Amino acid sequence: MKNKEDNKKIKILFIITYLELGGAQKHLLSLIKNLDRKKYFIYLCSSPDGYLREKFFRLPDLNLYFIPELKREISFIRDFQALLKIYLYIKNNRFDIVHVHSPKASFIGRWAAYFAGVRKIVYTVHGWPFHKYMPLVYYNLFLFIEKITSKITQNIILVSQADVATGLKNKILSKGKFCLIHYGIETKSFEKAWKKRRLNQISHTIITISSFKPQKNMFCFLEMVRLILKNKQNVKFIVLGEGPLKGEVQNKVDSMGLSGKVILEGWVDDVADLFRDSSIFVLTSLWEGLPVSLIEAVISGVPVVVTNTGGVFDIVIENQQGIVVEPLNAVQMSKSCLQILNSYKDWEDKIRKNRELMNVFYWSDKRMMGLIEKVYK
């Protein structure tokens, strides 16, 4: 039997397409982990696939519902089946809030919640699904979908200033219905990495984190590696991640003669130790929302070389914490990495000054949780 406290608890359903190790998924894992079980009944709907599945399984008092038809690829039959299953799940459980993440799940989940009569639908935009690297017909289609679906959404959370600007420019966002909430992470291990960096001799190691999707542009990263090694041989490159293009990336590493120099580590749960010993963090993405790995690198005090995409300027001060270059420019990325490596002491001094002035709490999961709960209320 329910007690009086249970009757006061808010029933919330999260929906996301995959439980892979990406920024949206790490954000959602942190969000669900930190929600007060005395205030909320918590449910999660997703496809059954992904590296983080076991981590979600281990969270206490989380009700999981897997839908095999929920896939990233467009399929009218499969997508309708997913929508129908989510609709029935929502209808049967009478949720107070439905909070959606990732493009496919955000579209299907919001319409299922709307048809099921949910009064509060919340959408976190982890980077808009339309971008300049897709065919114009798809760009216009996804933009139209976002405009129409925003009308049935009570609150839209943006994770970067760039996404806010894009949403306003394209008339997706309306006054009073959106807010900016930057990602928050569990900062403790990265603060430890920062403290240890100041005591250690940093090796010539360049690190990147990738889900091996076209968005991450790993072939540009490998071209950058080739150019760096032409000028500096004693550099090692570590790539963390898994994904659909990993086989192609491995083949490219072999064909370019980069075996032994580029190490594909797979996913690593604790990246803080790698940040502690790395000389540069690189991001070659074509489009982003706000990369969680970039926040982790900056808090760890690692100089960064990143592409001008998404919310990088929300956390990176140009020529103080790193260098920002245009996407697809492997030449400029290699020059930027060499510039940092060849004057590393100067960069350490700049990083130290900026890191000591940084408000680390602002990038914490505690600050993020407080703001998201205000949206729920």
How would you characterize the overall build of this protein?
By secondary structure, the protein is of the alpha/beta class. It folds into 2 domains: 4-180, Rossmann fold; 188-361, Rossmann fold (3-Layer(aba) Sandwich). 44% of the residues lie in helices and 17% in strands. α4 crosses α5 (103-115) and α9 (218-231) crosses α13 (330-342). It is globular, with a radius of gyration of 21 Å. The model has no long low-confidence stretch (mean pLDDT 93).
Q: Structural class, please?
A: alpha/beta
Low-confidence stretches: none
What's the quaternary structure here? Answer: single chain
Helix content: 40-55%
Query: Domains counted in the coordinates: how many?
Result: 2
Average predicted local confidence, pLDDT: 93
For the record, what is the CATH homologous superfamily label of the largest domain?
A: Glycogen Phosphorylase B
> What is the CATH level 1 assignment of the largest domain?
Alpha Beta
Please give the count of helices.
Answer: 15
- How many DSSP E strands? 13
Main beta sheet strand tally, sense and closure: 7 strands, parallel
**C-alpha Rg, in Å?**
21 Å
Order of helices and strands: HEHEHEHEHEHEHEHEHEHEHEHEEHHH
CATH topology of the largest domain, anyone? Rossmann fold
What is the spatial order of strands in the main beta sheet? 3-2-1-4-5-6-7
CATH architecture of the largest domain: 3-Layer(aba) Sandwich
